[in-house]
Amino acid sequence: MANMVYLVNCAGLGQTATEIQIRLPAQLDARCDAAGRAGRRQPSDSDSPFRPQSNYAVPSGRYSLPASARRATARRGRKLSLVLAALLFAGSGAAQAKIINAASPSQIDVATAVAVAVDGDTVIVPAGTATWTSTLTITKGISLIGQTTTNSVTGTAVDSTIIQDNVTRPNAALIIVATSGSKAYRITGFTFAPLNTTGASNGMIRMAGNGTGMRLDHCHFRPNIAQTALIAVYGTCAGVADHNVMEMGSFFGGSFVFNNGTTSTDLNGDGVWASPTNFGGSNFFFCEDNYISNTHTPINQLIGFTDGTFGCRYVWRYNHCYDIEIANHGTEGGRYRGGRALEMYNNDFHNAAAHQVGGIRSGCLLTHDNTFDGVQPPIGMPNQTFRSFFSWGPLVPISGGYFTTSTTAVPWGGGSGDSPWDFNDAHGLYDSGTVTSGTSPTLTDATKSWATNQWVGFTARRLSDSQVGLILANTSNSLTMAVYMGDSRYAVWAANNQYQIHKALVLIDQQGRGKCDLLTGTTAANTINSVTGKPAWPHQALEPVYSWNDIYTPSRAHVNTLGSASPGIQANRDYYNQNTGWTPGNPLTTGVGVGTFAQRPTQCSAGTDIAGGSNPPGVGYWATDTKTFYVCTATNTWTQYYQPYTYPHPLVSGATPTPPAPSNLRVTGP
Length: 670
Description:
Blueprint lengths: L5 E3 L10 E3 L12 H5 L28 H10 L5 H10 L7 E3 L5 H10 L5 E3 L3 E5 L3 E3 L4 E3 L3 E3 L4 E3 L2 E5 L9 E5 L5 E4 L2 E4 L10 E5 L4 E4 L2 E2 L7 E5 L5 E4 L2 E4 L5 E5 L11 H4 L11 E4 L2 E4 L11 E3 L4 E5 L2 E3 L3 E2 L13 E5 L2 E4 L6 E2 L4 E5 L2 E4 L22 E2 L2 E2 L20 E2 L6 E4 L2 E2 L3 E3 L14 E4 L5 E7 L3 E5 L15 E5 L1 E3 L12 E2 L7 E2 L15 E4 L2 E2 L4 E2 L16 E2 L15 E4 L24 E4 L4 E7 L2 E6 L7 H4 L17
Parallel strand pairs: 3-4, 4-7, 5-10, 6-11, 7-12, 10-13, 11-14, 12-15, 13-16, 14-17, 15-18, 16-19, 17-20, 18-21, 19-22, 20-23, 21-24, 22-25, 24-27, 25-28, 26-29, 27-30, 28-31, 30-45, 31-46, 45-48, 49-50
Antiparallel strand pairs: 1-2, 1-3, 8-9, 32-33, 34-42, 35-41, 36-37, 37-40, 38-39, 38-41, 39-40, 43-44, 46-47, 50-51, 51-52
């Protein structure tokens, strides 16, 4: 009996449950009426995710017909046609949904309950503490409900159903959810606690597949869980994580990792980059109304952060953030592509130490209406294109660029100005030479007589390994460069190193770039632009970064995004901050204007794409009354660009539309 699984007759939900063993006839399943379940009150932030109200009752299946239909049946003895019976059954789509009670919070009891569940069922896990040593995998559209409650405003929780993480390392997931289609999946009401102290990667809770109905909510993550990411999103999984309380302690790990741009036939996110960005759409993963706190002393930015690659798209909104940073990785360190798009708005950030808001290393960003207090961030969201000053190898130079037959190689190389994947200065090679002496980040070539700072914004590439440095300054015979010292392979210049100087204008997938040609191939050796049939610049559209109404509340100072040392990231071309000097009635020629729709200026400046794209977005305007963002796509021409997606998310509010019932059906009979 220890592993007994029970079904709950829906007629008694919220009252004294009549429990029946799983071996009873399946026909009893049909006695759950969906209509009663649909009337359930939506839980508030501090509610239990499954707490029926005192007056909650579900009529049994035999009374699921409307009262008028029952009276008509009694009066005339009319029989429903087979068509109408089928309609009524389909109309109560969850008519066979079951409530299954796991016998305990142990992994084997929960897994046993999940095993007998089918799409639409709910598995209830009781209060208690259990240690899990193996992974629970969920492939069905079910709800898994524990008894923990959270308050994500105050960051508190009542820990009732506690799962201790002791799953075998290294790649140890506690729960994996394989989503599919429009099925509804939910995990709610659990406390996750540390036990195993060996670090694990790829996410403790992993949500994958191509589903659009994933929800993870009202869970409490205690400090010091030994996972590099508490929650990871893979595949093209879309949905929402909401009202969770996440306490990040001494273990260096992130709160969320998003790798949700891949499919079974596209493992690198190429398809997402070849598709429209779709700002304001539903095909992002949403994080809203969560409480995330970095409690490490001293504050370390590698704790509690968000991250993403593989063409990820996510929305970060209405969260309460304590010393955490929001970020993604770029197209740089592997065949996979970098983050595709990020929306960040209406969050409150509270900082006990000085650190940046985060940063994106590729793709598009809209950041607005966030507030900051405590220690003022020294910078907002920087646009950092790491390939400007580092090359992830191993790489072998060849004619027309560089790549290698090694399956572990990186096709992109550094942003050296002669990589075929970038849009480069047509001049080509500007200069070359042999190092007389050097170190990092400086080289000296005694044979040169350059003009002071003539090479600022250019790139020096070492021929022996294709390592690069972005030139920040030069004298008559020396170059000082920016290099990425976070990897031991950065360029340390030495006598007799040979170098070349080129200039890159736009790097593949850099910040402010969006939809592009489809790339194909899985290795550095066979990756090509499918339009040109060879490694080539993928004609990426200019989709600038926009920032407005991000405010440090103590002083009302704006917390703006900013460019990097790369010459390819420039203000009022690749990114736009709020123009605080603009007033209604005047033309808008730089930045982002903010006001009502009626105050939107008639005169605006369009964008300029140095890579030759057509109708690039320029200045932006946020209409505060309609919550709509416009961009100037031609002189004095505004185009609607973005409206935030429904809040709360439909999976939270229960507003997901249902398919319409079949029409033209009628009752037949005497």
